[in-house]
């Protein structure tokens, strides 16, 4: 499955792009903790996608930034588990 998020903002500077998924990376000094920016958002995205064995990437130029997330299809689910035995108060659990 491919999920894409696109915006038409100013874009990400080319020097920042290779490091954009690192923790605490912020684009400019104006984005500070007190302004509500932790620099963690995209690193969390990257970690969650990796946990699902997916891939995340970004392309950016002034006027168009596209984040792409590929997620693999679910592996074939394990077979149904045995149905639980009916409750019998005489059987210790
Ligand atoms: N769509 C975008 N367009 C331009 N720059 C971006 C975009 N998304 C992220 N960035 C840049 O990448 C940096 C890191 O983004 P990230 O989401 O990891 O942290 P943040 O947005 O600063 O903080 P938080 O997600 O905690 O609010 C941002 O500070 C910003 O400079
Ligand atoms: Mg963010």
UniProtKB/TrEMBL annotation:
SUPFAM superfamilies: ATPase domain of HSP90 chaperone/DNA topoisomerase II/histidine kinase
Enzyme Commission number, as recorded: 2.7.13.3
Keyword check for Protein biosynthesis: no
UniProt KW Kinase keyword: yes
Regions that span the bilayer: none
Skewed-composition ranges (Low complexity): 76-85
Top-level lineage group: Bacteria
Record's keyword terms, sorted: Kinase, Transferase, Two-component regulatory system
Region called Disordered, residue ranges: 74-93
Domain Histidine kinase positions: 1-75
GO-annotated molecular function: kinase activity
Catalytic reactions of this protein: ATP + protein L-histidine = ADP + protein N-phospho-L-histidine
InterPro entries per record: HATPase_C_sf, HATPase_dom, His_kinase_dom, Sig_transdc_His_kin-like_C
Name of this chain's protein: histidine kinase
Organism from which the protein derives: Flexivirga alba
